Amino acid sequence: MSDTTQNGPVLAADGTPLKRSLAKALRMQKLRALMLIAPLLLFILVTFILPVGDMLFRSVDNRIVQDVLPNTVRALENWDAASSELPDEAVFAAMAVDLKAAAEIKVHTKVAKRLNYENPGMASVFRKSGRKVRKWDVENEGPYKERLIELNDGWADIELWRTIKTYSGQRTMGYFLNAVDMKLGADGAEVRPETERIYNTMLIRTMRMSLIITFSCIMLGYPVAWLLANITTRSANMLLILVLLPFWTSLLVRTSSWKILLQQQGVINDVLVWIGIVGDDNRLVLINNELGTIIAMTHILLPFMILPMYSVMQTIQPTYLRAAKSLGATNWTAFWRVYFPQSVPGIGAGSILVFILAVGYYITPALVGGTKGTFISNLIAYHISSSGNWGLGAALGAILLAVVLLLYWVYDKIVGIDNVKLG
Amino acid sequence: MSALPPYATTGQRAWYYSFRVICGLIFFFLIAPIVVIIPLSFNSQDFFTFTPEMLRLDPEGFSLKHYRDFFSNDSWQSAMWNSLKIAPMATLVSVTFGTLAAIGLSQPHVPFRRAIMAILISPMIVPLIISAAGMYFFYSRIGLQGTYIGVVLAHAALGIPFVIITVTATLVGFDRSLTRAAANMGADPVTTFFRIQMPLILPGVISGGLFAFITSFDEVVVVLFVGSAGQKTLPWQMFIGLREQISPTILAVATILVAISIALLATVEMLRRRSERLRGMSPS
Predict the structure, then answer these.
(1) Exposed/middle/buried for residue A200 (C-beta within 10 Å: 0-12, 13-18, 19+)
(2) How confident is the model over A207-248, as pLDDT tens digits?
(3) Which CATH architecture has domain A199-419?
(4) Residues of B in contact with A261 (CB under 8 A)
(5) B50 and B115 assigned to the same domain
(6) B144: which of A123, A201, B150, B283 fits an S-S bond (Cβ 3.0–4.6 Å)?
(7) Which domain holds residue B224?
(8) Does B154 touch chain A if contact means CB atoms closer than 8 Å?
(9) In a domain, B69, yes or no
(10) Using 50, 70 and 90 to split pLDDT, how confident is the model at B149?
(11) How close A252 gets to chain B, by Cα (Å)?
(12) Based on the domain organization, do B48 and B86 belong to the same domain?
């Protein structure tokens, strides 16, 4: 080989510089990997991410007011909401035009429903007037201020106009404020009166009960994980089946079995009466309250606590404990100062997992929780399927999702997504 | 814990045995609620507790009447068939897409790997009620709400994270020199995939598929929102039964489902061991 070729760029077999041909191969490899992933990515985006995003958008979407009452919204721009005077004739005329147009295609009830969430009572004003205004000639039958107020004295209420003005934007924080028991007043957000606060109570209850469930899972899971990690692999595999079987059993089977067991005439009460702990006439109320939800969900989520704890405890060397004891530590000191700190990552991983799953639970609280033991999920389901206040449901959902994603991010930092193991 | 040393004090002995008793009780708590419904399902009365006849082991106390009811009742039967129509289709979709993507993800150079992984796993993280509500709105807008296809797509999306996780786990131990050797000997990528890679990762694919199947077969929240009466599945029927008027037939259904889950658990365990054995054989 001559000196010149050694100093020049290294060439691949076909004469192109090796660097470039390697880069090309790498690009091809990346492209091939992405081509393999693309179909699934597209599938998930369309069937899952888009729907969830679409729902979250509903929590701030407020186009309906502007779409149905365009003239009124424009006319109200010149009106000072802080003043104690009703808007002028122009606003009332615009409202009459909008209301007639809306009533003809029957959308005035929709905007009525929307505004009613913010100011109860507005729906009836809109609905009653809409029917009448439909027959008006809105071009030259003024003055509309007197006529509308004559039709329904709700139009003389200044709060009604303030609400329309406050909620005339395309986007609103109203649903989110509702979801944390606040409301949008004429001058910014304000806290709702004590009697109207339900959502904070619900959020706090969900958090509190999830914490209790997580804590009971730690208390019950730790001894079992310790036992599994400290016996022979053969027996551990046998006992592990007892943990995995509930994990694999249908959620509804487990919930229905708790529903049956916890009844006042159920097996648990029967056994307690038979032993003589409780009298036949005052059987325990174990279901349709918080206790029922906690018992059933602790059982359902316990495997999710035991499995991560077990996999961490498996890696703790038993020799450390023996070393501690040979240095004079008592059993308790050896456990508390040597073994326990090493098992904390397992507790952390299990706890976050259990807590994430618990805050989003719907089925079990709905079936065994009664009215006292339901979660925020049940409230979301109620708003989506029964009350029709989709925006509020979406806002509650967004808050729940934010909590879960935050915790998940922590989980990812501690454990890593890739380390999620199944079975 | 393995064994009690001969020099253990009385206190240590007491703790050793009481610890075992505590663990036994926790295992009892885990298993008993599932096991107890099995004998209850053979009750000849319409009760949800053990009758005196059953406790005396009197044959009069036992019967198959709840099972007969399950197999003759139209709403239970149509629910079962709906479940059997939806779950395999959803599994097929998630296994096909999921396996391809898992192979892509385990290539050495994947741009945005973490972000892609996070998106693909998201159906497992997002609380079901949020997924269900989102799909309800979106699918009704594009006309999929209340259709068989809508439910299958929704369930497939929920099953995909499980396929991704199990298959990528299997691929971690996959020896790349095998595919290179195949390519070297003139096999095209498709042949290499089906004759070399697929047989080796099959245990992971099948257990991922079983996870996806059980996810769809057990799922109730999403189907409640996305499905209509025509897609009423077994869990949905159970949910209604539990919420409105609970009938003892539910015990028989629960027992059948427990039997199915035992079978699935056994299969997954077997596959996991087989996969570990296979990977142990390949040079690494």
Answers:
(1) middle
(2) 999 999 999 999 999 999 999 998 888 888 889 888 988 888
(3) Orthogonal Bundle (1.10)
(4) 33, 36
(5) no
(6) B150
(7) 74-281
(8) yes
(9) no
(10) very high
(11) 7
(12) no
